[in-house]
Amino acid sequence: MSYAYLFKYIIIGDTGVGKSCLLLQFTDKRFQPVHDLTIGVEFGARMITIDNKPIKLQIWDTAGQESFRSITRSYYRGAAGALLVYDITRRETFNHLASWLEDARQHANANMTIMLIGNKCDLAHRRAVSTEEGEQFAKEHGLIFMEASAKTAQNVEEAFIKTAATIYKKIQDGVFDVSNESYGIKVGYGGIPGPSGGRDGPSASAGGCCS
Amino acid sequence: MKMDLMSGYKGVVGLLVGNENSSNEDRYVERLLDRISNGKLPEDRRNAITELQAVVSESQAFQLAFGAMGFPIMLSVLKEERDDVEMVRGVLETLVSALTPINHSKGASNEVHPALMNTDLLSREADCISLLLSLLEEDDFYVRYYTLQLLTALLTNSPQRLQEAILTIPRGITRLMDMLMDREVIRNEALLLLTHLTREAEEIQKIVVFEGAFEKIFSIIREEGNSDGGVVVQDCLELLNNLLRSNASNQVLLRETVGLDSLILILKLRGSSFTFNQQKTINLLSALETIKLLLKGGSESDPGKDMNKQTNKTTLVQKKILDHLLILGVESQWVPVPVRCAAMRCIGDLIAGDSKNRDLLASKVLGEEPHVEPALNSILRILLRTSSMQEFIAADYIFKSFCEKNADGQSMLASTLIPQPYSMNHAFLEEDVNMSFGSMLLHSLTLGENGDLETCCRAASVLSHMLKDHLQCKERVLRIEIEAAPMQSLGAPEPLMHRMVKYLAVASSMKFHDGKSSTSGNSYVQAIILKLLITWLADCPSAVHCFLDARPHLTYLLELVSNSSETVCIRGFAAVVLGECVIYNKSTDRGKDAFAIVDTISQKIGLSSYFLKFDEMQKSSIFSSLESSLTHRSFARSSAASMADIEDVDGNDLSEKKNLDHPILSSILDSNFMNLVKSLEADIREQIVEVYSRPKMKVAVVPAELEQRSGESDAEYIKRLKVFVEKQCSEIQDLVLRNASMAEDLAKTGSTLQPEQRVSGGSDRVPIETLHRDLQEASQRLEMLKAEKAKVESEAIMYRNLAGKTEADLRSLSDAYNSLEQSNLLLENEVKALKREGHSTFPDVDAIKAEAREEAQKESEGELNDLLVCLGQEQSKVERLSARLLELGEDVDILLEGIGDDAGAAEDGEDEEDDE
């Protein structure tokens, strides 16, 4: 249960784009073609390794429906990373990205890392949003971008890990005050506390106390 | 000054039940409120608030008066005087007073509760919740403290509204969570608030966990000394349980990221202090509740429930939960009974349906060398010897969970059932840890001999778990014979089963000897032994055979079924055993086969009254109360109440079910068993009808056989036919007999029916058929109507929604129109104003014009004058020069001739201009 860092993620995006399936593929390595509508939020967790350090990901999968927005917004502020998902076969889910992004910018902390994911890339024959458009949108808004498939698991692992790597880099660069848990980052055993970072080995003042 | 007023009003307050003087309070409160909202000096306003607080905390009448008009004013003070800490504090304190119930010793129950009313009023004030939540960020301790108290009061009385409000306020819960890290008093208040808040609302539970609730809870528990801590630990655990109850998502988070170590740590008994004060007992019970919730998994509707539950179990077992539970439930002798029971129930949950965990439990050995014994033996000893009924039930639950669908485990336990010679059976010490499971059980089963039916029936309960659905075990135990006691050594050893029937009879007879006092005391002994018999005979012809081996058994059962002094449940169970003797009867002996049993039943009891026993049992409270006992209750916080709480765990929930049956029955007769009984009943009915409707012919009537065979002599033929007829004759006699008993039965049933129904008899068929048709038609129509109704309803809803939308549209349109009109009006006004302004400026322009003209005129006049002066000067110069020229003798006129023209023209132009 020991980890160097713990990152909190949220997954957001329109209903039916495959948020829950991405999470399930990432945590359980399985795909469930028929998934119940998510009510409110659901939780998942997994350990990954970045730079030889164990990193725990706590992931909150939110309901995409409008009626849950006020509930899901409560999760924005405390998250270090967000996966913003659209469905490459449904144009409107891409068109709504701006409104999701606005929501995130308004409610999340400014340093939240956002990964844009074009899901269902296995359904290339029904594609309604080109890869270039996704890239373009990400570039314009300063997001990381990837196309993925929860069904074939393509890029799923990568998406979660790349997001974590970006957050990790930000910590190394001293962007965060990691002692402040409201950024969605927590230092565990063997972690490097403080924004100075870069030193190896556990520090005496490591604040994390969870195992 | 305040004191004066107070004493002045005390008299009025004392009188105030009939409310006839309420206007006085109203006026007084009104005055104070006026000072608060309109006062000029902060000092005066503060004083008014202090006075108001004092009176509001004093009497219900003032609370009412304040509630009627005070809230908007108070809230506006909170909004506008945020910097005046003292005023804010005073206002909050006043609000707390207005929301705190005042105990009136003589208060009637139907009186209005001003505090409740005020809470409702306050919660309706717009933005009240967000305002209060924002106050939690204030530096002043009292401001935060009172605010938390207010929120708690609001939550207690209108939870729905507060929950919804908090969910819609961004960061609302974050602020509350921050309070957990605040000073102790605030922290404790926040704990209570969060506990209230998380009781039902799943989304709030999740957000609270997102905000790191688990870490905070466990860190507080650790700080307070785990189970040795005070009431704060209890509060923490209650919050924890609220967060985990039926919430798979939160359970996953706890398991996957926070871990269960901290939880296990609470269950650990540390150091040499074996004192269990009541707080520690409650803390441990709460922690065991947490374990129970984890073992139960998420909500029933969750599709991944079983997987989550299984993972919880596995993780708990990895953390050696079983060892801790065994210490609490079985090994430690200092642990109070309620904790032991809770721990044992957790063990039962842990092993239920989990073969690995069952094997683990079976392999556990307790005690220290050389006095070690298998854990299961220790649990059996507790089960047999405890003085607490609850502890027996908890231990019994372990065996039930251990045996259910665990054929290997059942065989393992049954294999130890080896009968000992009588002398040996009674020679050993009960404390002996070397005694095997089987001999302990057998010994207890035969204790019925000495009148210890209590222990005997407890053992019977364990035995029934061991036999359930396991044919080999049933047959193995059938072969066990018990040696008769030396002094009554009349006969050979008898089968264990016969002993059990004997004890059943002893139990019922003892009841009659003892009179009323122990009626309920023994009915559960009978019920448990009957349960054993029902389980044993089910699907096991050899058990039925063994049971019917002794003729008196059947007679006794028949007596039991029709004995009206037995409870409904006992009679019902006895009827089930009888039924099993029919449906699982493979015997071909005349007098013992299924037909014989059915005949006996119909002769001795009558089939309809036999079936009536089933109906009565179905309707009895045991069946109906099966599903109902699932509500959870939390431990009372006040220490006085909680001790009673713990002490009363024995039969606390059960005592409410006041019926003839013993309360213990509802625990022992679990749903599985009751379902077995239900399905048996259906089989029995079917089988008995079968026996009657299609009696097995001993003589088959084959037309071919009636013909004379070729080569058969007439004499042989006649002889054969004669035998045939004889057989048929005896069978007809049988049938006639059965028919007679049925007719008698019918007559008996008929007599209880309405007379006119009986008279009409067979001629009823036709009307019945038409009635039946009518009924069908009617029900069809009903269905149609229902469908139509649903359709209409859904349409109505649709239209309502539509209407609502249209209305909203209309409203927004009219709003828009209004605002347009307003802006129009505004514009018009502006235009008007502008116009008016325009009018007043015109004269000015004229004036300016005139002025300008005047000025221009003046200027031109001046210039003209200058010119004239110049001209004059030139003229005089010319005159002087011409005089000089004349003096010099020159002709001036000729000299000036050319110039004069020019000068004349210029002079003319100047004149013209002058005229203008």
UniProtKB/TrEMBL annotation, chain A:
UniProt GO molecular function: GTP binding; GTPase activity
Gene3D superfamilies, per database record: P-loop containing nucleotide triphosphate hydrolases
Domain of life: Eukaryota
The keyword GTP-binding is annotated on this UniProt entry: yes
Keywords: GTP-binding, Lipoprotein, Membrane, Nucleotide-binding, Prenylation
UniProt GO BP: vesicle-mediated transport
Localization, UniProt: Cell membrane
Protein name: Guanine nucleotide regulatory protein
Similarity comment: Belongs to the small GTPase superfamily. Rab family.
Pfam families, per database record: Ras (PF00071)
Entry function: Intracellular vesicle trafficking and protein transport.
From TrEMBL, chain B:
GO cellular component: endoplasmic reticulum; ER to Golgi transport vesicle membrane; Golgi membrane; Golgi stack
Uso1/p115-like vesicle tethering protein C-terminal domain: residues covered: 788-912
SUPFAM superfamilies associated with the record: ARM repeat
Keyword field: Coiled coil, Golgi apparatus
Domain Vesicle tethering protein Uso1/P115-like head span(s) in chain numbering: 374-688
Lineage: superkingdom: Eukaryota
Main subcellular localisation: Golgi
UniProt-annotated location(s): Golgi apparatus
One BP annotation, GO: intracellular protein transport
Coiled-coil segments: 768-837
Database matches in InterPro entries: ARM-like (IPR011989), ARM-type_fold (IPR016024), Uso1_p115_C (IPR006955), Vesicle_P115 (IPR024095), Vesicle_Uso1_P115_head (IPR006953)
Protein name: Vesicle tethering protein Uso1/P115-like head domain-containing protein
Organism of this sequence: Glycine max
Encoding gene (name): LOC100793920
